[in-house]
From TrEMBL:
Native source organism of the sequence: Dactylosporangium darangshiense
Record keywords: Kinase, Membrane, Transferase, Transmembrane, Transmembrane helix, Two-component regulatory system
Presence of keyword Transmembrane: yes
Entries under PANTHER family matching the protein: NITRATE/NITRITE SENSOR PROTEIN NARX-RELATED
Gene3D superfamilies: 1.20.5.1930, 3.30.450.40, Histidine kinase-like ATPase, C-terminal domain
Superkingdom as given in the UniProt entry: Bacteria
Keyword Kinase: yes
Name of the protein in question: Histidine kinase/HSP90-like ATPase domain-containing protein
Transmembrane regions: 32-49, 56-73, 124-141, 153-171
InterPro entries tied to this protein: GAF, GAF-like_dom_sf, HATPase_C_sf, HATPase_dom, Sensor_HK_TwoCompSys, Sig_transdc_His_kin_sub3_dim/P
A Pfam family that the UniProt record links to this protein: HisKA_3
Histidine kinase/HSP90-like ATPase domain segment(s): 458-550
Amino acid sequence: MKGSLLTDLASTPARAEDRTPAPASRPRTGVVAVRVLLLALVAVLLLSDGVRAAELLWLALLLAAALVATAAPQGHEVARLGRTAEVLITAFAASTLNGDAKYLLVYLPVPIVAAALSEGRRMAGAYVLASAALLVVGGAVEGRLDDRNYLTAGGQWLVIAGVAAFQATILQRVLLARRPDDTPQPYAEATRLLTQLRSVARQLPGATLDPGGLAEHLLDEVRAIVPATRGAVLSGSGGGRLVVLAQAGVERLDWETALDTESAVADSWATQQPVVSGRSQARSVVGGGSISSMVVPLIAGVRTVGLIVLETDSSGTYPPALVAKVQSVTGPAALRLEAALLFDEVRSLATTEERQRLAREIHDGVAQELVMVGYGIDNAVAALPNAGAAEEELRVLRAEVTRVITELRLSLFELRSEVDRYGGLTAAIADYARTVGASAGLRVHLSLDETTARLPAAVEAELLRIAQEAITNARKHAGAENLWVTCAVDPPFAQVEISDDGSGIGENRPDGRYGLAIMAERAERIRGRLEITPRVPNGTTVAVVLGTAPRAR
């Protein structure tokens, strides 16, 4: 009962002495239990030495008042009338029952404490004063003011009721201070921010929050005001490395993305200051002539969002005036890029969570039910040893159920597959190809080449989904025996190629065409090129290429 009472105290709104009643609510379990127990105790004490009509009458009236006070919603006028009736009946009965007053007064703290919790200390104090006045008036009428036992019992229970009401309000406030809000603050704040983000996104030019598109626009904007033969926009990805969001120039460059090296890129990131250098910020040698490079941090508030790197094939190209001009452009751009990166991260987290949720629901629901169907078919086959035709039909059905369960398990594995932060894209694709190959009886041939640099997380996720779709098509539709998986990742370049020796893509296969459309949409989303070609002598090759291939070294 103690736990129930504490729960009720915490669920009653805290209020000052002069606050209005609480909104209507259903009766609370703890309050009902206390009233029932004390009413039962009073009845036992009064009737323990015999049953008398006057005592039964007062008990009946007190029970009726208690029912009204308990059944009415808390804070309602009817509940207040019920508590007032409890106080009046208890005080009058105590003054009329000679020798039994102390038994009836046991119930007096109940309506007073209930009033303190529902309406504050002021109402509880009014009830205490009213009870004292009624005991005095009733005692005077009944000639009991010279009865020491009567006065002692009345004084004791009035003090107990007042102290109990005061302590109850203090405990109520303490519990409410420790109790979390009905709406957790992080979720309320997240809702507010996401609502604002949705409104802002609709007002953006082109309604886009694509980090790659914003990075390309920033490069074009900067190259229009300062000379730059080539350039790139880099952003942080964790693990002490940067990723290339966009680049511009005649040819592809392997930009320096490590933050633990001696380079202008690392210095600018660490100091949050522009750095001008006479060396290229690329990992490969551009040429033997003079070079000027400038690295400007993209700072939003106090956080470094990324860097913009510009280079020319001449010395002394970037004086302080030009650096300041670039900074005037990168300030607003940093805010836009940070919003895009945050939005991309939120979208990625939401997508991952939804995939995991679907995987759990399918695994715990449909997958388990199909397994039980398979067991049922096995039992039916065992029970039909002499019915050849029925047995054969059941065996065919059992094989189909097994196939569906296998497909479902592979779909669950695909939903759960993600690019590990430390394993990389090629490891995720290889793991998926091996699992699918083992379940489908395909011989898998892997050719993996990945540098330590990483692509943006959103790009890696899309490349993994494209590879999964291509592998699934080869397993389900091509009837292949061999699967060749080739992955080359050297950011910002990436190429993923899936080949099989199956029957190829036929014109009358709408399911396969739908899968190709999905892959094409994913490739377009990351500005990649999807290439689907026949494989000689038979089969299909699906390749997605991002960026331009690195130059031979």
